Amino acid sequence: MGIDKRFGAVHANRDVNLSVARGSIHGLIGENGAGKSTLMNIVYGFHRADRGEIRVNGRAVQIGRPRDSIDAGIGMVHQHFMLVENFSVLENVVLGAEGGRLLGKGLAAARAGLEALARDYGLDVPLDAETGHLPVGLQQRVEILKALHHRAEILILDEPTAVLTPPEADQLFRMLSLLRDQGKTVVLVTHKLREIMAVTDRVTVMRQGAVVHETATRDTSPKALAEQMVGRSVSLRVEKGPASPGPVLLEVRNLCVSDRLGVPRVKSASFALRAGEIVGIAGVSGNGQTELLEALTGIRRPTSGEVLLSGRALTPKGLGPRGLRSLGVAHVPEDRLKMGVVSSFSAEDNVILGYHDRGAFARGGFFRRGAIRADCVAKMSAFDVRPTDPSLRITSFSGGNQQKLVLAREMDCGPSVLIVGQPTRGVDIGAIEFIHRRIVELRDQGKAVLVVSVELDEIMGLSDRILVMAGGEVVGELPGAEATEETLGLMMAGVRREGSR
Amino acid sequence: MSAGGRLPRWAEYGLLPLVNLAAALLLSGIVVRLIGESPWAALKLMVAGAFGSQDSIGYTLFYATDFVFTGLAVAVAFHAGLFNIGGEGQAYIGGLGVGLVGLAMGAWSAWVVIPAMIAAGCVFGAAWAFVPAWLQARRGSHIVITTIMFNFIASALMTYLLVNVLIRPGQQSPESREFGPGAVMPAMTDVLGRMGIKFASSPFNLASALALAACLLVWLFLWRTRWGYALRVVGQNPQAAVYAGISPERTTIVAMLLSGALAGCLGVNELAGSQHRILLDFPGGAGIVGIAVALMGRNHPLGILASSLLFGALYQGGSQLSFDMPHVNRDMVILIQGLVILFCGAMENLFRRPLAALLGAASR
């Protein structure tokens, strides 16, 4: 079976050739923007290739829409699940293959089929449960079942572990191995080297829209793959000396935060952040980290509890983001495009966001355009942002350069506390190194840094102390040097560590 | 926007609107042909009607002034992410403010009365926009719905006031008495005459200078002040605004107040500049045309200036056309205007892809 694809006009993919052997797990790895998703979306019929062809089992197929792809035996599990949350599992699985005008018969047939599938592959899912109520790991299983039910022989998984705890990810990999052993073909799209090494048979590396390397997984190493991804040698470790913690700058006491619908998301969290240390918050995405960040930065009002800045309690009403900024609390938000930048604005207009009323930028309400531009150029050269063009739209920059601009904005104003959500989400490896170094430098200047990340490697590499959040609670704390993936994984899954403080 | 839709600036702001306009005129020409008139003659009549003589140019500029005010009103709200459909009502009520000052202070010096009329127009227009703005900001009531409703309320209120309260005693038509001499915005024919330039008499008056100043001020405000910046951040990304410490609620209200004030200035042109009394339905749809003007002008003051001129010409040339061509009546003219709005507003992207492809092919 060969999937062969070639096309040129859009440079998201340049003459890409990828062939995947039947009954294997093939890894597709590359930085953000390397063209992995574009390629997979073409294979699945979301986009159309300008040139090139797709062959399944040696036969060329025309794929113009997802239906064609499903008919050709290709199934896709998206990073963001495509499930109807208030449907039952069974209803979700038959969606798109109902088999007739009346549901009853199709559902009964599907039930029998799914029970057989569940037996064959160990894919146990409660068929009648409401999908939205299942844990994400199970929801993902529903997606896989759905693909198999649609007679997929080739299964594409796009960043499947982004929402899983490490034990859940291991379980997924075991499942994938089983599927392979039964003759299915799996394409695993990821940017995590560890996963490639753990589960794939062969791996293809993409860079800037082109395939740069293909090899059997056992013949390569994480370091070699990383270098192929970036195109130069990189250090995967964060270089830093020991921390010298000073006085407590930020203290949180019994903080409770609810989301927009009034559902409690943070449950009585307490911790302290000292000058000169980096504290990391680990946890699977969606366990209260977002709400905690928003409460600490004044975006969301906590329902109860206290936040103290340098020992001074912030008024019960809390300060808004503006007040906190003026007290030296800088914030790099988790989702850059949703919150951190205005995507239709130029770089310079984004670099003043949140600081636009500072005297340096506006006098009597009128902008000092020259000063704004000069400041932006200075930040760009200090943070190695390329191209050095302040008038360019922010979205014309790569994810890494966008993030560097946001960091430059928040670090350059002399904050005493820096709160960073997902410091390197959607950022290429080269920029990750740079960003980590800058965060460590800030710590060494005696500032307090709070990092929230779903990337365990990042948390372990950066943090002097690690807090683990699960189900909205801080379930444990351990020194950065002692943390391993296993201990963190167990804590993230909600198992309290014996003797944890 | 999907791939292949990006145009260079000159094409985006120059070529694309022209192509859209040409398409609208072409289709209008076909309709004119179908009813048995010559499209070419009709076009010549319209152009002559709009620009053929000094007084027709005066009328064109007079109408264009209305559209500048209402177009800017739509644009300011739009930059804050709000679709203000209520320009008509805000202009109507703004005109009430202008008229009340004109009636009450007409005997005073024009140096006092005219600034007071402008201020009153702004305040009344802003006040009429405030209620929908407040409802949107604090209660989440959709601004499109509430501003449309407020157009009707404004219309009903003004009818009541003109029929029962402001009507000149002993008269049948629902109009107020004339303003005093101090409440008259100088006509351009007089202003230019004093400067030694002869210009035929028309309703074209000094309010046009106010409109030009408004364009400049809106541009300065939106792109050169931190308040305008905050307003645009809210319009483009409310979450980023919250993150930056900008209150979307307060900004919504400020933007709508400004929008209403701009719409309210229409009364300065219509009432102080031309009618010199309050009468029924004086905005005459200019508040609605302002939406098309803003859309076509890409919500930029310069673009709004250009599209206001176009719509002013369509208005003036169109009424001339219906005079001179027996088969082309008033409704035909509205049809032509409708087609221009359709192509330049609703279907502005129709030619975007072909144009982008063409330009892309040419530059390669």
Structural features:
heterodimer, A: 501 residues, alpha/beta, Rossmann fold, 2 domains, six-stranded mixed beta sheet, 21% strand, B: 364 residues, mainly alpha
In short:
Chain A has 501 residues and is of the alpha/beta class. Chain A contains 17 helices and 20 strands.
Question: Helix and strand layout, with pairings?
Answer:
The complex is a heterodimer of chains A (501) and B (364).
Chain A: E1 25-30, H1 36-43, E2 54-56, E3 59-61, H2 66-71, E4 74-77, H3 89-94, H4 103-121, H5 136-149, E5 154-158, H6 166-181, E6 185-190, H7 193-199, E7 202-207, E8 210-216, H8 222-230, E9 248-258, E10 264-274, E11 278-282, H9 289-296, E12 304-309, E13 312-313, H10 321-326, E14 329-332, H11 336-340, H12 347-351, E15 362-363, E16 366-367, H13 369-382, H14 399-411, E17 417-421, H15 429-444, E18 448-452, H16 456-462, E19 465-470, E20 473-479, H17 485-492
Parallel strand pairs in A: 1-6, 1-7, 4-5, 5-6, 11-18, 11-19, 14-17, 17-18
Antiparallel strand pairs in A: 2-3, 7-8, 9-10, 9-12, 12-13, 15-16, 19-20
Helix pairs in contact in A: 14-15
Chain B: H1 9-34, H2 39-51, H3 54-79, H4 87-105, H5 110-139, H6 143-165, H7 188-194, H8 207-224, H9 226-236, H10 238-243, H11 248-264, H12 266-275, H13 286-296, H14 301-324, H15 330-346, H16 352-363
Helix pairs in contact in B: 1-2, 1-15, 2-3, 2-14, 3-8, 3-11, 3-13, 3-14, 4-5, 4-6, 4-11, 4-12, 4-13, 5-6, 5-11, 5-12, 8-9, 8-14, 13-14, 14-15
